[in-house]
């Protein structure tokens, strides 16, 4: 079954494009996109160091461009996935009345990784650490969607 899945972070240049890229590499039959709760990087490609770290794992991100999350995304997607609690709060603040689209944390799909958020590598500079969490979680997401 094909799902429509939106990955969301703050800037849409590090974590959510990496999650989209890692997920579509694993499960290309789904319709995916990513967005930022901020509009700071609209139109920008993923951050260079994240593109490089992803590419070293065979994950290409260069076709992606940042956009801002909008209320209409609640109707366009079946599942919206944020990277941290701030993302979830910012997403929920835009939920249209009556909409029931599930909004989840990416880390919910990999409880064994022992964290409730993906630390922002734009600040931590740990791009590989973020990708380790993201790859484990999108594997869990893929398994969840198959079950
Ligand atoms: P992201 O990381 O939310 O994973 O894309 C960030 C990228 C840029 C900024 C913040 C977070 N920024 O402040 O420009």
Overview of the structural elements:
The chain is of the alpha/beta class and 147 residues long. It has a single domain, classed as 3-Layer(aba) Sandwich (Rossmann fold). The protein is 38% helix and 13% strand. The protein has helices at 15-26, 48-55, 73-76, 85-92, 121-124, 127-146; strands at residues 4-9, 31-36, 79-82, 103-105. A 4-stranded parallel sheet has the order 2-1-3-4, with helices on both faces. Helix 1 (15-26) crosses helix 6 (127-146). The protein starts with a strand and ends with a helix. The model has no long low-confidence stretch (mean pLDDT 98). The site of 4-nitrophenyl phosphate (4NP) has 10 residues, from loops.
Give me a quick take on this structure:
The protein has helices spanning 15-26, 48-55, 73-76, 85-92, 121-124, 127-146, and strands spanning 4-9, 31-36, 79-82, 103-105. The protein has 147 residues and is of the alpha/beta class.
- Helix/strand order: EHEHHEHEHH
CATH superfamily: Response regulator
- Could you say what the CATH topology is called? Rossmann fold
The largest sheet, given as strand count, sense and whether it forms a barrel, is:
4 strands, parallel
The number of distinct helices, counting runs of at least 4 residues, comes to 6
In the sheet with the most strands, the strands line up as: 2-1-3-4
Secondary-structure arrangement, i.e. CATH architecture: 3-Layer(aba) Sandwich
* Count of individual domains: 1
CATH class: Alpha Beta
């Amino acid at each position: 079954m094909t799902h429509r899945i939106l990955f969301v972070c703050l800037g849409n240049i590090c974590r959510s494009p990496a999650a989209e890229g890692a997920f579509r590499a694993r499960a290309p039959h789904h319709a995916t996109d990513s967005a930022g709760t901020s509009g700071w990087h609209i139109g920008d490609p993923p951050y260079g160091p994240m593109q490089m770290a992803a590419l070293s794992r065979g994950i290409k991100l260069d076709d992606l461009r940042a956009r801002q999350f909008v209320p209409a995304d609640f109707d366009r997607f079946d599942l919206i996935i944020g990277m941290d609690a701030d993302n979830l709060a910012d997403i929920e603040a835009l939920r249209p009345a009556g909409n029931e689209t599930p909004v989840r944390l990416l880390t919910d799909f990999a409880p064994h990784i022992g964290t409730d958020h993906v630390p922002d590598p734009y600040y931590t500079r740990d791009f590989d650490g973020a990708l380790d969490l993201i790859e484990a979680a999108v594997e869990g997401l893929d398994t969840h969607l198959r079950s």
